[in-house]
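Deviations from the work plan: none for this task. Representative record:
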Amino acid sequence: MVQNKSLVLAKHPVGYPVPGSDLITTSSEFDLNQAPPPGGLIVKTNYLSFDPYQRGRMRAATGLYTTGYPLNSPITNNAILTVLSSDNPRFKAGDVITTNAEFSEYQIITKERAELEQSPGGGNAGVRLLKNPLGLDPKLFLGALGMSGLTAYSSLYEIGKPKKGEVIFISAASGAVGQVVGQLAKREGLKVIGSVGSDEKLQYIKEELGFDAGFNYKKEKPDEALNRILGELGEEGLNIYYDNVGGEQLDAALGALSTFGRIVSCGSVSQTSKKPGETHGIQNMPLVVGKRLTIRGFIVFDPDMGGKYYEEHQNNLQKWIKDGEIKIKMAVTDGIDNAAEGLVGMLKGENFGKAVLKIADL
Amino acid sequence: MVQNKSLVLAKHPVGYPVPGSDLITTSSEFDLNQAPPPGGLIVKTNYLSFDPYQRGRMRAATGLYTTGYPLNSPITNNAILTVLSSDNPRFKAGDVITTNAEFSEYQIITKERAELEQSPGGGNAGVRLLKNPLGLDPKLFLGALGMSGLTAYSSLYEIGKPKKGEVIFISAASGAVGQVVGQLAKREGLKVIGSVGSDEKLQYIKEELGFDAGFNYKKEKPDEALNRILGELGEEGLNIYYDNVGGEQLDAALGALSTFGRIVSCGSVSQTSKKPGETHGIQNMPLVVGKRLTIRGFIVFDPDMGGKYYEEHQNNLQKWIKDGEIKIKMAVTDGIDNAAEGLVGMLKGENFGKAVLKIADL
């Protein structure tokens, strides 16, 4: 028997989740030597992903995402795990797999799940063998080579429709999605402007990732920053806004977009943890008509998104990361005891790079 | 010599334009017997269109529409006119033409304009012979068979993508665009919900136009009204919101749309005459991601809009109006002396139906 710790949703948060109150760590006994269930697996958790959409799943059911997290159960997200024992012919002990897993150190995978192939980006409960032919850091498969990277890749092309010489503005530009979008856009010959929440991140996107310009939204108002930067770049306006945050930055982007501009609506992390009455009302929506803007929200599991780009994304990104053409920064939280703090820190923008939880290295 | 009165923009309005201050009526002498300029025309104005986009053109130049109205000149819009004399082989005295004309009782058309074919919806300065084979009310060619009708037709199909059994909500539902959109949607087998600003209009869209439901936005809050109506119709949410007004109704529609819903952004007349600080900040933009909504602004002159649907629109609408399958309500203001009041009344929603100015009947 071992102690098996889990991160559990105890209450629906109001505002940012509070570790120890909304999110608590529980412990129970787990028998590592038990037989797997018929057709199932016993697995050990190595890495779990922290993603902003998890905040949405902590709400009381709204129907917006397929399921909210049930109360008093471990929360879940994409994970990399090692098979300890298997009663399923698809997998054997020692295999490294990805699936949507509990935030628990050990867990059981049922026959139904073990027999289902994981969909691109991890949109179902299925399981996939980790395919890592170039020997990359496995944590990348929770980020640039996982859901957030596929999110970036598919939506930039499907919705953003980038063209050489255009100007793109990306919020949360050093985050899991933003850093991939920005480097892809540079490869396509766009001018890239990023917003971040610290001077350290600003230096990083400009000096390490080669973005053309950026600003720290905590120090400069987004509308003023965009005006300043567009002037410095000699550009009239934005062609694409890749929106990870919503709120004031979305408003500023609506003001700075040129005619026929596109907004890729990926997230609104600046608003989703706001309490009622604290949210930012968007003032610039009337500009959508005169500028003929298109705003499109998506989820990577949508029919024309992740699945359509999955092979291309894996083939290109694995190669470009191996070659050093695309750099990926990760923010690793160590251990289940720190998981709640890591998750809330990511929601507050305190992470620097793609946020992951390490339970045990491979 | 006759007196030739014109409606002139004297100042850029703040809020709603003020007749007698922002918009004034001027008069000058006009020689009806003068020779037309070489290659040009002398014309008499019969009807002029009032459209919400004209408010945008009364601003100081913003770059959003191709041109703002110059100060101290007559404003312009689509018109129906009679040729008094012609030096151009395309036209002869007595011809009835459409062009983008001054709000003046009489005017001169230059050779350059007389030689240019008017583009669909009236997007250029060209001139077209009115083609009215079914002998319909000529004022219709400023509305249902003109720019606002083509706006409705092209955007409903190109952006709204209506499918039988879906639910559409249309604001300003008895207006120039809304009444056409709603009746087209009924023909396509959709359930149609309309919002209007008076009980008389509400009765009209339900009893005369056959809309399934509606509400008076001055008496019922839009979010509560949509919830009530969706419940009564046994529907979970909207599939399309056809937005003519922006503001609170846009916010309510964002809340009531189902996944993969579309917003056709045609106008925001509730906001464009608001003074700074009075506009409504949109709270529900974060729902765009989770619901995977698409919001698209357009102008009828855009490449994939009016021109693409022009023939189809003329052929179908002329026939359906002649047959009585589609009913068109018009609000006629009589005489240039009343033009400013008519235009401002339309901006305030005081008109009932497509607003036009009559100078002289054909």
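Chain B has two domains: 2-143+329-358, 150-297.
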